[in-house]
Amino acid sequence: MSRNGSAPSSARPLPRVRATLPGGTLAPGTARGLLGAALREWADLGLPVPARLAEDLLARCPRLTLLATSREPLGVPGEVLRPVEPLPEPVALRLLAERGAAARPGFRTADDPEACAEICRRLDGLPLAIELAAARLRMMTPRQLADRLDDRFRLLTSGSRTVLPRQQTLRAVVDWSWDLLDAGEREVLGRLSVFAGGCDLAAAEAVCGPHALETLGSLVDKSLVVAGPSADGEMRYRLLETVAEYAGERLDETGGRAAAERAHLTYYRELARTTEPLLRGAQQRTAIARFELEYDNLRTALRRAVADRDEQEALYLTLSLTGYWGMRDLRLETRTWCRETMALGPDPFTEPVRRAAPVWRRVTDDPPPLSGEELLEARRGVHLAHLACMDTELDAWQNPRAQAKLRAIAGAYGPGLPQTCRLPGALWFYAVMLTGDMERLRELIDANVRTCRETPGFEWELAFCLQWRGNILANRTDWAGDAAQDAEEALGIFRRLGDTWGTAEALSVRAEAYERGGAYREAAAAFEEAREQAEVLGARAQVAVLSARLGSVLLEAGEDERGERLLREVIDRGDGAANEAMPAARLFLAGRLGVTGRIAEAREQLRLLREEFAIAHFAVFDAFILGAQAWLDALDGCHEQALATVRRALEQAADPLAQVIAPHMRCVYLTIAAVALAGQDGGARAHDAARLLAAADALLPSGHVRDSVERASHDLAEQRLREALGETAYARAYAEGGGLSFEEAAALL
Fold first, then answer.
1. Cα(241)–Cα(123) distance, rounded to whole angstroms?
2. Claim: this prediction has a pTM higher than 0.90
């Protein structure tokens, strides 16, 4: 072996093996010695190990095994790669514990496991980075350290002074790797830093350029890009957080960030725009999986559009994501991004409101830009999607300005417009309901069904409108129409289209129609099937809602044990805490507990419901809870308290939305009032109570079937009144009350 000169130079001759044996074959021992010397000399010179040396040795020494550690493969025949992965979390935590204890005696990761796990995770399990972080524990707590890792290169600078300079700070480590890259590799690595959560090859080529494939392979070989298959079998490429932060800084230095981020935004806007239609049909699961896989990138693109005040891009992304948000019950996401996008343009519902013209195609069917009526409809759509999230910000809607906007939205559309036959345009109906125009609501939903039947290509829209109408008719037995028939037709269409979500929704409407008619076993079977469909999609929130409804009808069907168990499971899991599942389960369970004499536990369920459910003070839900409290008070003999509570419940039940959801609610509360009034003052007001009961029976919507709680309250009222008045007086008082209006009956309280 020989060494020439004193410093590495491309002009210097490289070390080479001079000794040979007869026949040209080296003995293994000799080969190992020469190889070790050669490798040491190359390392001293800071040069990579030459593949030719390895190949020659392996060819001449059949029994020789060569183990090489390198930034990239040698690329010789027969090479087997064993990538050195980042440390798994348990090992990384153990390293942090050991090095942390060395830096600060008494340090234990168990004292703040969450912060320690975050440190290891955000440092990508890199041993050197964890060691540098551990050194900082001499002066910082784990939480302080974790909170400052966004500035990791300035923070992690306290390495051992006995190691190579490139290993003394985190920046020096990455600087060394960066300096070994060529210009093309540096550009691609910098552009990759704009992704969030990795990307596939198509995205990488769109953002990094047409030659990204070859460069990506080189960066993967150098362990600067991590490659691995995703759930759909496609390869994905991602940067470790440390590499991404560094590459992002370098991208800023070159001035290339704006172009890279615009390319990223354009690619993911198109991905969202073209994936959204697949949510309606046989490719629904594929579309959901794609949105889930790319959600970090989609949200990053939307954040950039908002930051750039690019209304068109924000409109496209928001409208393309509302369907996915709805299926995953991401109402806070919907509310947040709708508000951000709404702020970028004028409010289309500001007085004087321009009446909507027909828009037959979805506004996102073609790439931007939008103009004219389509732009106006896109703006309306974002405002309507925001309206549907009003339960997440009730205070914002409880003022004159917000109420005026509801009236403006209600008046902006006419019956049967095509854009109101699908989401988000159909959400306009919420404004109509909230402004209390019940008769107009029926006219509007009928007009939408007619529009869908008369319009070629509106098959999915027809199923959607039928399901929507069936949902309302199931609650409004006093309206002419057949909820079950609408549900069956919608179900047939959704099944033919392969739309699993729509199938679950139509089955749920079928179940509600059965339930309202008292066919509880049939309702349970339909809810079971709907739940199975939702489980196929992994729609946990929808499954929770359907489980609560199933538990309720099982109780009505006489399957008490299973029904109560299901309700408790929904409550304990908390999957529906952000929607109506958990509140409904607590309300159903409280009713069951009251009927079976477990009053104290029933009260506890209502107390927890008030504490945990922010929308509990919204009129319709407040009415439900107040009614349940009044029922428990009446059962418990607290007659004055029951009457006070039922008065409040009746006030809330007069809300227009409450009348749509539960038009029988006021009659039920009059019955509960009759129970309390019958027991007041030793029966002195039993005559008025009998008149109340008669009014409640007469005003009950036609076709309404009482559930177990309603039957129990009615039976108790009748029993108490007959005992207090006797048969003749009861019959006379009851006859007097049959002709009372609701207002006249309520005045008796």
1. 7
2. no
Mean pLDDT, rounded, of the chain: 84
Q: What is the pLDDT of residue 71?
A: 65
CA distances from 204 to 212, 215, 224, 235 (A): 7, 11, 15, 11
How far is residue 162's CA from residue 609's CA, in Å, rounded to a whole number?
62
- Side chain identity at residue 675, one-letter code: V
Q: CA-CA distance, 386 to 315, in Å (whole number)?
A: 13
Query: Is the pLDDT at 286 greater than 90, yes or no?
Result: yes
Mind listing the pLDDT tens digit for each residue in 139-161? 889 898 888 887 777 777 765 54
What is the CB neighbour count within 10 angstroms for residue 25? Answer: 14
Which strands make up the sheet holding 226-229, listed edge to edge? 199-200, 235-238, 226-229
Residue 257 in tokens: 């960030």
Phi, psi torsion values for 237, nearest 5 degrees: -125, 135
Q: Are 500 and 508 in contact (CB under 8 A)?
A: no
- Compute the chain's Rg from CA coordinates: 35
Angle of CA points 583, 588, 592, to nearest 5°? 145
Pick the closest to residue 200 from 244, 237, 232 (CA basis): 237
> Taking the alpha carbons of 20, 26, 32, 35 in that order, is the dihedral positive or negative?
positive
For CA atoms 466, 468, 469, 473, give the dihedral sign: positive
CB 597 within 8 A of CB 603: no
How many CA atoms does the CB half-sphere of 190 hold within 13 Å? 20
> What's the DSSP call for residue 23?
G
Place of tokens 């959801």: 661
pLDDT for 236: 94
Mark residue 87 as left, alpha or beta (left: phi above 0; alpha: psi -120 to 50; beta: remaining).
Answer: beta
Handedness of CA 326, 332, 333, 334 (dihedral sign): positive
* HSE, side-chain direction, 13 A CA sphere, residue 431: 26
Query: Could you give phi then psi for residue 235, rounded to 5 degrees?
Result: -75, 140
Spell out the alpha helix ranges (H) of 104-180.
113-122, 127-136, 142-147, 152-155, 170-179
Q: Taking the mean position of all CA atoms in its chain, how far away is CA 145?
A: 30
Burial of 617 (0-12, 13-18, 19+ CB in 10 A): middle
What is the C-alpha to C-alpha distance for residues 113 and 142, in angstroms, rounded to an integer? Answer: 9
For tokens 């600087």, name the residue.
175
**Helix ranges, 169-240 (H):** 170-179, 183-192, 201-208, 212-221
**Which burial class, exposed, middle or buried, applies to 511 when counting CB atoms under 10 A from its CB (0-12, 13-18, 19+)?**
buried
Distance from C-alpha of 184 to C-alpha of 306, rounded to nearest angstrom: 31
SS3 state of residue 199: strand
Q: Which two tokens stand for residue 671?
A: 């019955």
Strand partners, 236: 200, 228
Q: Residue holding tokens 């002066």? A: 139
Who has greater pLDDT, 232 or 196? 196
What token pair was written down for 307? Answer: 């930051």
